Amino acid sequence: MESPDALLRLLAGETPPPERLVLCTVVDASGSVPQRPGARFALSASGRLVGTIGGGAVEARCLETARELLSTGGHRLVTLHLTRDLGMCCGGSLTLFLQALEPAETLYLFGAGHVAKPLAARAKELGFRVEVIDERPEWANAERFPGADALRVDDPVAVAGELAADARAAICVVTHDHRLDQEIVERCLALPVRYLGVIGSRRKAELFRQRLLARGFPPAQVERLRCPMGVAIGAKTPEEIAISIVAELVAARRAAAGSRSPVLAVANDASGK
């Protein structure tokens, strides 16, 4: 939230917030007040502030409430009488609505090949923030991934080793090389992400699990790995495989939200190259 324009884009739904933020809006006003209905500010979890509801004691009080909601989430309706509650001489009153807005879930997509392209597009349609990582600029580019929020042309193993992904994130590994897949998975296995999957056959899945256990990774971490990825729809083409993986991402999202989700049965056999 670097500018009022950024806030306007957010409110129009064009830009998902990169972090949790609280939006405070004046919804009613009477008497002498610093701002009229419609005035607003947004406060991000990192402390960035855009917009204003008039500054001074009113804004200071609402910023206190906003900081609480950054920690707890949710929303709150606040009515302030400027003289009685804040000691101001204006004499008016304001009603304000404060709401915590959650950031979009991020899909970190390692690999920019044939499956990655439709997977990125379908995930974007379902509200994910999509970040594509591949060291090959001829594959990881805006022409192939026009809707991606970020394109990182970099060593994917190095990126995986520095990744700061939280419990709302998902990681899909769909590179062109099995050895590269293994190295990326090893660096991501301990991350507290909602979903971690790698594309491949059942044989590849078993080999991965054996290698991870042999290298000392805890069994509980190894069991988190989804391989093969995708809900069992008999997918064969890159587009079908992408749909099956996105369906599994939705199932993980709904399970995290506490709603019922289908069993994550996997039956897709693909190399992902």
Q: Tell me the span between the first and last alpha carbons.
A: 38 Å
* Sheet having the most strands: 5 strands, antiparallel
Strand content: 15-25%
What would you give as the CATH superfamily of the largest domain?
NAD(P)-binding Rossmann-like Domain
Number of domains: 2
Counting DSSP E segments of at least 2 residues, the number of strands comes to 10
List keywords for this structure.
273 residues, disordered C terminus, single chain, five-stranded antiparallel beta sheet, 2 domains, alpha/beta, elongated, Rossmann fold, five-stranded parallel beta sheet
Produce the secondary structure layout.
Elements (H helix, E strand, L loop, with lengths): L3 H8 L9 E10 L9 E5 L4 E4 L3 H17 L2 E7 L11 E9 L4 E5 L5 H10 L3 E5 L16 E3 L3 H7 L7 E4 L4 H11 L6 E4 L3 H13 L4 H6 L13 H19 L17
Parallel strand pairs: 6-7, 6-9, 7-8, 9-10
Antiparallel strand pairs: 1-2, 1-5, 2-3, 4-5
Describe what this molecule looks like in 3D.
The chain has 273 residues and is an alpha/beta fold. It has two domains: 4-101, no CATH class; 106-256, NAD(P)-binding Rossmann-like Domain (Rossmann fold), CATH 3.40.50. It has eight helices and ten strands. It has helices spanning 4-11, 56-72, 116-125, 156-162, 178-188, 202-214, 219-224, 238-256; strands at 21-30, 40-44, 49-52, 75-81, 93-101, 106-110, 129-133, 150-152, 170-173, 195-198. Strands 3-2-1-5-4 form a five-stranded antiparallel beta sheet, covered by helices on one side. The chain has a five-stranded parallel beta sheet with strand order 8-7-6-9-10, sandwiched between helices. Helix 3 (116-125) packs across helix 8 (238-256) and helix 4 (156-162) runs parallel beside helix 5. The longest helix has 19 residues, at 238-256.
